């Protein structure tokens, strides 16, 4: 189990007051806070080693290059991948767009399909829709669980790519990706896992699950904003064209004949990369490694069970998503009486409790569940039962303010 | 909490001029998709004067209260007077600081009024 009291001390922002109350941060599915080791790693790079990578021969440039490449190895190792299969991006959105533009656009034949689900984040729907190919979406149950019968029905020989979130940012639903990948491989479909909500809460090993692509963001896993990554399986890399072109991603450039692209991950990293971001992200991975992903999941599962229990006791509050915490990550989503989610979030904020409200970039999911907007409290390693209790108390205030 | 001052809560709980718009010929709607707010508003004009105004829809306390207050502002006004009702006038009428993220809630009703104005011209 995690020593949350000790963990909290690592996060300077958690000492902040909001509206005169100690901050309770429950918006982790949107972005997470950063611990001291991450902040210090970034500061160390900025104050001691800042230089452009891969080109200079001077000391700083060599240090920066070594740190950038060692960060790549650390981040790749965090998901069980070798360094040359990990490409840094800005975030999950860019990672998925990269696969859509550099792989899917050139590998789907007329008549071939992409299979996704209605519970996806917009960033795992829109990049595929832009391709103009046939897309199918697997339905969910009213509890927000993937309908595997519908999946089996929609997965056919025409399916070239299955793209699915490991864990829903809106309902916390954990999808059975091992089964999904096995079934997809039977029809020779490739698989992309949107792991924006899962690498940091559940952990994943890309070689064990055998996916083709996996995308995630740094800022949702204690790292900085503006850095993310995508795992590109070696065999898929060979089928891919560049994403963006420019410096860094080439080995030879001519004015009168085609350029020769760089080999390996660099081919998809045009321009000066976010080196300090990559270093911060590597520090974030190490932070998770020290705590242990098994311990993180056990802590968040226990907290999810407690949160679901406490919330279900509130009269007029309806929980959205799976009731069983073994298939649900630390995302507590609800509708409170007739109150609009924005009003709920605003009153909670007046009590120092930060939650999110709206459709959480999952409009098709909300439409499927017949909801316009929901309130969402999402958990992480630095949350404990007292944070849930503060949420419950603050919900009382919603009723007294809004009547 | 300033945002939910008494007058605003009163408009939210008891919206004025709220209801069915079927007998309104001049009407329009707008929505804040990210919030799920969706309002429709209609006006009746006679001899250059707003003789009736009504709105309906779903929204948060701020969008419903501000639309309700807007209908009170519009009711009985001449078109010349009503032409001056814009974002600034609406925010002034609400009388509370509205954060950037809630501006679109506070101004949803007025956005429909702007569309109706164009139809009138």
UniProtKB/TrEMBL annotation, chain A:
It catalyses: (sulfur carrier)-H + L-cysteine = (sulfur carrier)-SH + L-alanine. Residues 24-391 form the Aminotransferase class V domain. Keywords: Pyridoxal phosphate, Transferase. It is an enzyme of class 2 (transferase). Its EC number is 2.8.1.7. InterPro entries: Aminotrans_V_dom, Aminotrans_V_PyrdxlP_BS, Cys_dSase_SufS, Cysteine_dSase, PyrdxlP-dep_Trfase, PyrdxlP-dep_Trfase_major, PyrdxlP-dep_Trfase_small. Belongs to the class-V pyridoxal-phosphate-dependent aminotransferase family. Csd subfamily. Catalyzes the removal of elemental sulfur and selenium atoms from L-cysteine, L-cystine, L-selenocysteine, and L-selenocystine to produce L-alanine. This is Cysteine desulfurase.
């Amino acid at each position: 189990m995690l020593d949350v009291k000790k963990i909290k001390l690592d996060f300077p922002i958690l000492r902040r007051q909001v509206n005169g109350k100690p901050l309770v941060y429950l918006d982790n599915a949107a972005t997470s806070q950063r611990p001291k080791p991450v902040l210090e790693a970034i500061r160390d790079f900025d104050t001691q080693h800042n230089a452009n990578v891969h080109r200079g021969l001077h000391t700083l440039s060599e240090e920066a290059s070594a740190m950038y490449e060692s960060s790549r190895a650390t981040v790749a190792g965090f998901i069980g991948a070798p360094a040359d299969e990990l490409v840094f991006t800005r975030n999950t959105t860019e990672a998925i767009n990269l696969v859509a533009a550099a792989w899917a656009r050139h590998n789907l034949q007329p008549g071939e399909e992409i299979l996704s689900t209605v519970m996806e984040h917009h960033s795992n729907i829109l990049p595929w829709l832009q391709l103009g190919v046939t897309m199918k979406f697997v339905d969910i149950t009213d509890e927000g669980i993937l309908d595997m019968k519908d999946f089996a029905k929609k997965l056919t020989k025409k399916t070239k790519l299955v793209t699915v979130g490991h864990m829903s940012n809106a309902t916390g639903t954990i999808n059975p990706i091992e089964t999904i990948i096995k079934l997809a491989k039977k029809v020779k479909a490739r698989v992309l896992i949107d792991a924006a909500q899962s690498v940091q809460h559940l952990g994943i090993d890309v070689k064990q699950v055998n996916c083709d692509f996996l995308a995630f963001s740094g800022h949702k896993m204690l790292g900085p904003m503006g850095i993310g990554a995508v795992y590109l399986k070696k065999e898929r890399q060979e089928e891919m064209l560049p994403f963006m072109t420019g410096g860094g991603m080439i080995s030879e450039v001519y004015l009168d004949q085609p350029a020769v692209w760089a080999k390996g991950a660099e081919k998809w990293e045009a321009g000066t990369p976010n080196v300090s971001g990559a270093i911060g992200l590597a520090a974030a991975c190490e932070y998770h490694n020290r705590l242990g992903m098994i311990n993180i999941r056990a802590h968040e599962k226990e907290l999810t069970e407690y949160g679901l229990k406490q919330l279900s006791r509130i009269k007029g509050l309806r929980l959205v998503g799976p009731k069983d915490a073994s298939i649900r990550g630390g995302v507590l989503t609800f509708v409170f009486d007739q109150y609009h989610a924005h009003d709920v979030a605003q009153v909670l904020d007046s009590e120092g409790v930060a939650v999110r409200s709206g459709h959480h970039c999952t409009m098709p999911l909300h439409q499927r569940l017949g909801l316009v907007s929901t309130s969402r409290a999402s958990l992480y390693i630095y949350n404990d039962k007292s944070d849930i209790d503060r949420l419950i108390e603050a919900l009382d205030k919603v009723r007294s303010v809004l009547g | 909490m300033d945002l939910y001052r008494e007058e605003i809560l009163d408009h939210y709980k008891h919206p004025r001029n709220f209801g069915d718009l079927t007998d309104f010929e001049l009407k329009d709607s707008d929505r804040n998709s990210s919030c799920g707010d969706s309002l429709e508003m209609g006006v009746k004009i006679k001899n250059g004067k707003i003789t009736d105004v009504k709105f309906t829809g779903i929204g948060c306390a701020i969008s419903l209260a501000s639309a309700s207050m807007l209908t009170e502002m519009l009711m009985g006004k001449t078109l010349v007077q009503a032409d001056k009702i814009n974002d600034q006038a609406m925010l002034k009428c609400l009388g509370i600081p509205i954060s950037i993220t809630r501006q679109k809630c506070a101004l949803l009703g007025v956005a429909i009024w702007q569309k109706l104005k164009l139809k009138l011209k």
